[in-house]
Amino acid sequence: MSRPRAADSASRARILRAAAAEFAARGYAGANVDRIARTARLNKAMIYYHFTSKAALYHEILNDMFGAVRRQVVEIAQSPLNPQEKVRRYVAAIAGEAEARPHFPPIWLREIAEGGEHIDKATVGYVRDVLGALSSIIDEGVRAARFHRVNPMVFQGGIIAPLMFFFATTGLRRRLARGGATGAADISTGEVVAHLQQLALAQLEGKLT
Amino acid sequence: MSRPRAADSASRARILRAAAAEFAARGYAGANVDRIARTARLNKAMIYYHFTSKAALYHEILNDMFGAVRRQVVEIAQSPLNPQEKVRRYVAAIAGEAEARPHFPPIWLREIAEGGEHIDKATVGYVRDVLGALSSIIDEGVRAARFHRVNPMVFQGGIIAPLMFFFATTGLRRRLARGGATGAADISTGEVVAHLQQLALAQLEGKLT
DNA sequence: GTCTATAAATAGATAGAC
DNA sequence: GTCTATCTATTTATAGAC
Q1: Which nucleotide is closest to the Cα of A26 by its C1'?
Q2: What is the tens place of the pLDDT at every residue in A188-200?
Q3: Over the Cα atoms of chain B, what is R_g?
Q4: B83-100 and B189-204 are packed helices; what angle lies between their axes, rounded to 10 degrees?
Q5: What is the mean pLDDT of chain B?
Q6: Contact check, Cβ <8 Å, B168/A26
Q7: Do the Cβ atoms of A175 and B114 come within 8 Å?
Q8: Is A118 exposed, middle or buried (CB count within 10 Å of its CB: 0-12, 13-18, 19+)?
Q9: Dist. CA B197–CA B90, nearest whole Å
Q10: Which of A111, A143, B25, B142 is the most buried (most CB within 10 A)?
Q11: Which of A68, A67, A69, A87 is nearest to A77 (CA)?
């Protein structure tokens, strides 16, 4: 049998963990396969035993991220909750999946910066489904006369971009605070999520005008 | 005299333009000095004639970006406008400087992703001043009993992150639209700026609760 | 100021032993 | 499954001619 046993999967998992950290810290081009191997307490050849290439390794990490978000968001959209509650959970779900993966926010930010250079068809599908689920939640609220119609892309950007910004800047904000910047210090995840939930609902309920 | 004449400055400027585009597209680690030289219609040696290193070249671009934002924002904070108008102009100023430099949003997003790895003391100073100016605008509004007090960092993140997201995703959004995503198509800069101005003021004026 | 040529280091990927 | 050794290509940086 060629299927990996427990010990094999363990080293494969170590590679994935090490690679996620490396891609997050240095980006795709800056990531070093040899360093990934050392972090995983293995050698370079093992990476090419488990994965076809540096690119394939990266895609696996990318699709785990976007796949996890899609799963959560589609489930929320199909649930029997009311539209307001769905929006709150939508925000919390993205925050939750990002917080569960320290590499998520940096990799997400870099992909946006590259214009989605490494985004393959599978990833495009995930993003399409996430935006589709969001659209259906908004539609449901509009039909129930509780929401105003908003552009899903503008709405989504207003939520996910600040979220990724805050998760990714934890270290930088500390540094800025030491450099004399006001109010850059620690803000809790809960505060930011609550704030963005409120902001999201205020937009949908037309409280801005 | 060793000061460059017109022709010299022209090639220096071409290097800076080419480098900005390269760093934006591929990130610091991914940027290739030889490709920068070719884009600038020069050769690699000329880059090391005008700049001490790849890192020095990058810092010059970074500090031009953050310096421009600081100049604008400090001027707005010190102007005799009312606090609401200052907030509107604050949002528009960041959008304006970003739009004037196509490399600005991608480089900004990448720096956030790296936790400000390439941010030197000069850059930290710029960011500190920008947050300081924002804080003074908020304080002014609070004293005039027009604004509620908000955390400047949370507030700033809610504005600049969506702005950079939208500028950086122009190409990607078209691709997602072709891939079947709803509402991902073209949204104008004016719309996004107006939306974020409204969102900013709604927060400060306590319209969210 | 601008070029060619090259040094010196680094990195993705593979061969082949165990 | 795991390793060492190595090939090959790329890349930052510099020497030196014009």
Answers
A1: C11
A2: 999 999 999 999 9
A3: 19
A4: 150
A5: 93
A6: no
A7: no
A8: middle
A9: 9
A10: A111
A11: A87
Q: Which two tokens stand for residue A53?
A: 């290439």
Tens-place pLDDT, residues A59-94: 999 999 999 999 999 999 999 999 999 999 999 999
Strand D reaches within 7 A of the A11 CB? yes
- Nearest nt to B48, CA vs C1'? D13
The token pair at B182 is 């709803």
Give the DSSP H or E segment for B55.
helix B54-78
Amino acid in the structure at residue B162: P
Closest CA to B14 of B55, B56, B52, B57: B57
Predicted local confidence at residue B8, as pLDDT: 55
For residues B164-188, give the mean pLDDT: 87
Q: How many residues does chain A have?
A: 209
Single-letter amino acid, residue B83: P
Cβ within 8 Å of residue B4, ≥6 positions away: B12
Query: If pLDDT is split at 50, 70 and 90, which confidence band does A8 have?
Result: low
Contact pairs from chain A to chain B, CB under 8 Å:
194
Pairwise CB contact (< 8 Å): A165 & B171: no
Please tell me the predicted confidence (pLDDT) of residue B186: 79
Measured from Cα to the C1' atom, the residue closest to D16 is B45
CB contacts, 8 Å: A166 with chain B: 154, 157
Q: Alpha helix (H) ranges present in chain A?
A: 6-30, 33-39, 44-50, 54-78, 83-100, 104-113, 121-143, 152-168, 170-178, 189-204
- Strand C contact at CB of residue A34, distance < 7 A: yes
For B205, the closest chain A residue by CA position comes to A208
Query: Is the C-beta of residue A46 closer than 7 Å to nucleic acid chain D?
Result: yes
The C1' atom of C2 and the CA atom of B46 lie apart, in whole Å, by 7
pTM of the predicted structure, to 2 decimals? 0.95
* CB of B31 nearer than 7 A to strand D: yes
Select from B164, B140, B57, B122 the least CA-distant residue to A115. Answer: B164
Nucleotides of chain C in contact with protein CB (under 7 A) are 1-6, 10-16
Q: In angstroms, rounded to a whole number, what is the distance separating the alpha carbons of residues A66 and A107?
A: 11
B138-153 tens-digit pLDDT: 999 999 999 999 999 9
A162 to B166: CB separation less than 8 angstroms, yes or no: no
